Structure formats: C-alpha cells, structure tokens
Amino acid sequence: MHSAHDLLIALAGRYSFGDVGALAPAVLGEGGRAALVASVCEFGQRLLTLDAEDFHTELDAQTVPADLRRRARACHMPQTPREQPRGALDSLRPAYALLLEVVEARWRRRELSSMIAAVHICSEYLPLLAFEPALGHAGDPARWPEGLRAPGSRFGVMPDRECDHTRAERSAAERTLRVAVEPPAGWRAYFDRQHSQVAGALATCAGRCRTPCPALDWVPDLDDLSARCRIALTFAETPLVRLRHAAPVGHGFGVPSPEEVLEAWERSRAALAKHEAAAGVTTDDGFPLPGLPTLFSAVAAAPVRPATLLADVSAYVVELLRG
C-alpha cells in the first residue's frame, strides 16, 4: 500500500504542482522542507498555467535553482518598457518550446480544455514567431523598426479605408508604436489586450494584404516571410484552433474528446500541408499532435522542440520530497 509520501512523489511526476504544494505541510510536517517544496511547486504551477507575467519573481531566487529560473525567465513577458532582460520579447522560441511541453503534458493528463487553450495561445502569437528572424527580436514595442513608419505606410494609421486591418488591429498597431513611452500600467494593459492583435496585423501585412504599402519595405526577404505568415494565418483558422470556440455556450462547455482533438488535427494538417514550407507537418515527429513542433519550426525558420522545463521542475520537486 502506498504511503502519503509516495503519493506526493507520484503527483509531482504528473506535474500536479498545485496539489503537491498544498499537501506538502500535511505530509512532511510544518517546517522548512515543506515550505521549500511548496515554493518550488508554486513556480512549477505558474509554468504549467502559462502565467508569463509571473515566471520570474524575487521569491523564486530564494528557493528555485538558478538554471530553472534562467530558463523560465527566457519565457517571461517584461512588465515595464525598460525591464531587462527582455525575455519573450527577445525571442519567442523558448516560450513556444514551453507551450509545446505544456500541450504535451495536458494531453497526457487528459486536460483537453487546457490543452486547446494552450494551442489557441500558440495561434495568436505565431505571426511574431515568423517575424522574429526579420526583426531580430520577437515583436518588442520598444524596438520596432523605423520602416514601419516609412512615408506612405498605413501601419497604425487611423482610419484608412485601403488598409486590410480590422478596426481592432489598426487601434493596436497605433498603440504599439507609442506604448514604449507609456508608464508600466499602460504597458501591461497593452499586453493584456492588444499585443496579439498586433501579431495579427503584421501577419495581414505580410501574408494577405490586397493593397501593400511601404510598411514592410525594410524586410530583406519579404517573399519568405510572407510564406511563413500565411502558414500562421492558416493555423489560426484550422479545425484544431476552432475547437477553442466550438462550445455552444461560451468557453468551458463541451470539452472535446481525445478522438475529436486528433480528428480535428488531422484535418488541420491537411490544410496546412498545402503550403510548401509547411509540408513537414504531415510527418510523425513523435509529438502527441504529430507534426506540430515541425510546423512551428517551419514558421520560425529555426528548430522549435518541446522544452523539458516542467520535467526538470518535477524532478527537482521529487528530489526534495525524497531528501
């Protein structure tokens, strides 16, 4: 018969960080080791729930190994215009590696609603992953190229009937060009509500604008960027991503079954494979949604594989529990 201690270890292996942190004092007794386990589990839970605002806190420095903190901070979204390092605004590749690991973990735990929510986040910011090689960063509003404001550019110009951006995208594009001089509260509000709209606006500029303006004249290989942005736009419209909005009454109702998820992904792969640069999505790369890491790598023009951050936090929690 398993002891309570054994069950804690099993839960840690399943990335049930919230449960382990809450139960640790009852099993280990009130004291330093239980508090340490609870603190590390809180760190792991933030990663699992993709709480990118809080991937880095001062408390973590006292309880979480430096390597785990460094890797989490690479996925962290800066909370002020001048915060250093720039984390996910420097590169989205570590964040997408973590997103893939979260998708894999949610699939294994059969938490399919949370898994589809993570896929939806992937779809919203995928255009910025495509733009990263051209920009040299991942869409940092403090470092937009001056070319976005070139004479004749319609990016962020309101109103403009010739621009294919939606009203929300135009508003977000206008805001992103000035948000770096706003106070921290304005910066955070922008990321809460508008940064994903900017990603969509950039994808429209590169991938499906019917009346191009000089906004992207600074891009050295626009044809390549356009092809990768069209993949990102297609992914956002796939049956897999649409599962996020398939509930009859808002989000959270009608959770899809594993069979429904896989069927939606197969139809999505067929649509994505029509893009020459995304043909690899039909190969089996060993991921629960086969081809998804290959797809993200094609959009990024660089390898993007699932991280091992959750696994390494889990292993550290188990080490603490066994110590």
Commentary on this structure:
Among the domains are: 102 residues, no CATH class; 72 residues, no CATH class. Helix 1 runs antiparallel to helix 15 and helix 7 runs antiparallel to helix 11. The chain is globular and about 70 Å long. Helix content is 56%, strand content 0%. The model has no long low-confidence stretch (mean pLDDT 93). The protein has 15 helices and no strands. The longest helix is centred in the middle third of the chain and has 24 residues.
Task: Set down the secondary structure blueprint.
Blueprint: H1 4-13, H2 17-28, H3 32-48, H4 60-63, H5 66-73, H6 93-108, H7 112-135, H8 167-176, H9 184-193, H10 195-207, H11 222-236, H12 239-242, H13 258-272, H14 292-300, H15 309-322
Computed CA radius of gyration, to the nearest angstrom = 21 Å
Q: How large a portion of the residues is in β-strands, by DSSP E?
A: under 5%
- Main sheet makeup: none
Strand tally, please? Answer: 0
* Number of helices, where a helix is a run of at least 4 consecutive DSSP H or I residues: 15
| General form | globular
Structural class: mainly alpha
Low-confidence stretches: none
- The overall average pLDDT, rounded, is 93
Q: How much helical structure, as a percent, in the residues?
A: 55-70%
